[in-house]
Design a protein that fits this description.
The protein has about 350 residues and is an alpha+beta fold. Helix content is about 30%, strand content about 25%. The strands form four sheets. An eight-stranded mixed beta sheet has the order 4-3-5-6-7-8-9-10, with helices on both faces.
């Protein structure tokens, strides 16, 4: 169940509201409206923001599905702020999401993996800020492998009507009011949480509607899948190599797609652990804290999983930079606990 409120509720807080879970087959709009109507103090701004993200994801889904027909595969020949080669669809997805969030009017500022600085939307009265990775795993585009979008939503801390500040986006993971991802794969699914559980909505292509398909998702306590780039294993810390050897000895299955959204989603549903350790090339880790690690950690905890950098829970880390990078271990709680005893 989700709660649409305009005050920040700590992620660890429990709902005192009655269970209003809707049945599988409910449209996203009806789900949002039904949940909002149960809370008379909700003003609807977060609801509209989630609709804006859903709309943009439908547009991106359309572009992905016809990518080979309209010459939007391949690289642009330029690098993004991360120093990574930009794909044509990276640019398209970035433009589409920024445009949807600006036009929606609920967001005053955005940070994106594809942009160096804070993006001001021209809506100083907007109450929310958004951190987004518009197209995760874009190196998979040309070979038709699953990719995704990751987003995180905060209520601004600067005065409404003023110019947003860096502090609005460096609040910390436990101040998220919502987070989610869209997986563009064999089907397109939107998974999100507002701090009261995790629900998934599958896009019905014939209707152009997201339909509730996964209610109150719970990650299995353990699993038989480990996900990491084994091509880099020689560069991983010795204790991580030891842990991975243990996984192999136990006949666990190695599965790695190279798209955080896809790897995370599989392990969320089936049970498993995702590892992106430090390497010699990236001793501090490679994944971005604000728009990759924080939202995935929020979703994992809400589904009963865990997320850590090996020293503390991801959501307890204090951010210091918009594009801060981090080590990430996330997945089934028993597997994370076992990892922590190893490292």
């Amino acid at each position: 169940m989700i709660t649409f409120v305009d005050t920040v509720v700590p992620i660890t807080a429990q709902s005192t509201q009655p269970d209003l879970a809707l049945p599988v087959g409910t449209t996203l709009d009806r789900f949002i409206l039904s949940e909002q109507s149960a809370f008379p103090f909700a003003t609807g701004e977060l609801s509209q923001l989630l609709r804006d993200i859903a709309l943009a994801s439908k547009i991106i889904n359309r572009e992905i599905n016809r990518a080979g027909l309209i010459d939007v595969t391949g690289a642009t020949g330029t690098d993004n702020v991360q120093g990574e080669s930009q794909q044509k669809l990276d640019v398209i997805a970035n433009i589409r999401f920024i445009r949807a969030l600006k036009n929606g009017g609920e967001v005053c500022a955005i940070i994106s993996e594809e942009e160096d600085d804070i993006i001001l939307t021209g809506n100083p009265n907007g109450k929310y800020v958004v951190a987004i990775d518009p197209l995760d795993g874009s190196s998979n585009i040309d070979v038709n492998v699953s990719i995704g979008t990751i987003f995180s939503i905060y209520r601004r801390v600067s005065p409404v009507g003023s110019v947003p500040t860096l502090a609005d986006l460096l609040q910390g993971g436990r101040q998220q009011v919502a987070a989610g991802y869209v997986l563009y794969g064999s089907s397109t699914i939107l998974v999100f949480t507002t701090g009261q559980g995790v629900n998934g909505f599958t896009l019905d292509q014939s209707l152009g509607e997201y339909i509730l398909s996964h209610t109150d998702i719970k990650q299995p306590r353990t699993g038989s899948i480990f996900s990491c780039n084994e091509g880099n294993v020689a560069e991983y810390p010795d204790k991580i190599q030891t842990y991975l050897n243990t996984c192999r000895q136990r006949r666990m299955t190695g599965r790695y797609i190279g798209s955080l959204v896809a790897d995370f989603h599989r392990n969320l549903i089936k049970g498993g652990i995702y590892l992106y350790p430090s390497t010699r090339k990236s001793p501090g880790g490679k994944l971005r804290l604000l728009y990759e690690c924080f939202p995935m950690a929020f979703i994992a905890e809400q589904a009963g999983g865990k997320a850590t950098d090996g020293r503390q829970a991801i959501l307890d880390i204090t951010p210091t930079d918009l594009h801060q990078r981090l080590v990430l271990y996330v997945g089934s709680p028993d597997l994370i606990d076992e990892l922590l005893t190893t490292i």
